[in-house]
Design a protein that fits this description.
Chains A, B: InterPro entries: Fumarylacetoacetase-like_C, Fumarylacetoacetase_C_sf. Chains A, B: GO terms for molecular function: acetylpyruvate hydrolase activity; metal ion binding. Chains A, B: This is Fumarylacetoacetate hydrolase. Two copies of one chain form a homodimer. Chain A has 245 residues and is mainly beta. Chain A has two domains: 46 residues, SH3 type barrels (Roll); 196 residues, Fumarylacetoacetase-like, C-terminal domain (Fumarylacetoacetate hydrolase, domain 2), CATH 3.90.850. Chain A has one helix and 19 strands. In chain A, strands 1, 2, 3, 4, 5, 6, 7, 8, 10, 11, 12, 13, 16 and 17 form a 14-stranded mixed beta sheet that branches. Chain A has a five-stranded mixed beta sheet with strand order 9-19-18-14-15, with no helix packed on it. In chain A, strand 18 and strand 19 form a beta hairpin. The model of chain A has no long low-confidence stretch (mean pLDDT 96). Chains A and B meet through strand 7 of A and strand 7 of B.
Chain lengths: 245, 245
């Protein structure tokens, strides 16, 4: 099932993709879902980020498959950087290379503390695509991931939440720049699994519904420049497109 | 002027300390303030954190006065950790020493990007006390300040916002444990000034009204243990008290 968040004259509205339209729902986190009866045709829907997270976490040291990864290490990204599908990434100028980083994002569905490998996925509402845009050269002087991660619209998120991804550990990820595939990988190339990330994070911080965990870029970091169009394609979810200005 | 946020049967309510009572206001960020006509007597007011920030930033490398400080380095703390005056800090167990860290917190009043030394303070609504509770031993394996900063109620904030602090660069800070002063210092001992912090942060990240910048602990980190009562006293603002469980 796909859950989107769309712009309406009365404010943001969550909705489910049903019978060729976005069927409005009251609250994506309640079970069972309650439909309002309203709907928006696909062609008329302006997609917003599918959630408005209070907490956005990145996972450090989860980049490319290797036998001896460093211990997992989470970090916070500003919720102000979350951007809608189609929004312009404003590349910070004169601050080194700007990377697009294609990742699988986990959207938390239920309050989650001290998760185990057995119950972690039960606390997930679903999955979406994220572009963890980064001024990568700042890393040398920015051990806490603030300077390189704080630009305007540096966290495109969407286009929607897929609640029934067959296997989050086996999701292909492709990064396209101006229509050309520049990176092809998937969560199967992450040294720590998606479940590992959730167990680690919730061993320290209680997550709440709507929080987002970006699970790491398995060789999916690609330099971009103003004028580029960048697509993050996650298998089983869809395509998150942005332009760079 | 003091601005608090208090609990009422209809939800959180901002209010101004006026004529011995908390006079309710519509929005602490608008000018001039609009009074609703309602009020709550001091004795009946349950204080909440004075804002509900989307972004809470700490400032690394701003600890004790020295001539050659490392460059400023900000980091995000989870908004979920923000706690009200009087709430219990839940000390994470078996994870090393828990420090209380008494700091001056800046509450942003207007959207702030690329601030200068000249205009930085014009974007500030006011100041409050913050306790940046930390599992300090995690620092050795937690370069991004996630593990040591994520416990339940690890960011007591309050008791209210003081909008007219005479000089934020000269505010005394005292940390008391069980009524005994354990650290006495002030923002005058920070190697980088409060204004420096705002200029640095907004050179990278656009801040929004209600965001909070914790300006650093100038020798005001004190170990605490379950059962302790800890007070953060900032001169010109007031006392932020918490218990440790």
């Amino acid at each position: 099932m796909r859950i989107a968040r769309i712009s309406t004259p009365t404010g943001p509205q969550h909705a489910v993709d049903r019978a060729g339209t976005w069927a409005h729902i009251v609250d994506p986190f309640e079970e069972p879902l309650c439909y309002t009866g309203g709907s928006t045709p696909h062609g008329d829907a302006e997609l917003l980020p599918p959630v408005a997270p209070a907490v956005v976490l990145g996972i450090g040291h989860n980049l490319t498959l290797n036998e001896h990864p460093l211990p997992l290490q989470a970090w916070h990204k500003s919720a102000h950087t979350v951007a809608a599908p189609g929004e312009e990434i404003v590349a910070a100028r004169n601050r080194g290379t700007v990377n697009a980083e294609g990742e699988l994002a986990v959207v938390i569905g239920k309050t989650a503390a001290g998760l185990t490998a057995e119950n972690a996925l039960e606390h997930v509402l679903g999955y979406t695509c994220v572009n963890d845009v980064t001024n990568v050269d700042q890393g040398a002087v920015d051990e806490r991931n603030f300077q390189g991660k704080s630009g305007v619209n540096y966290t495109p998120l969407g286009p929607w939440i897929e609640t029934s991804l067959p296997d989050p550990e086996q999701a292909g990820i492709e990064v396209r720049v101006n229509g050309v595939a520049r990176a092809q990988s998937g969560t199967f190339n992450l040294p720590s699994t998606v479940v590992d990330c959730l167990v680690y994070v919730t061993s320290w911080l209680t997550l709440e519904p709507g929080d987002v965990v970006m699970t790491g870029a398995p060789g999916t970091a690609v330099p971009v420049a103003p004028g580029d169009r960048v697509d993050i394609v996650v298998e089983g979810i869809g395509t998150l497109s942005s332009t760079v200005s």
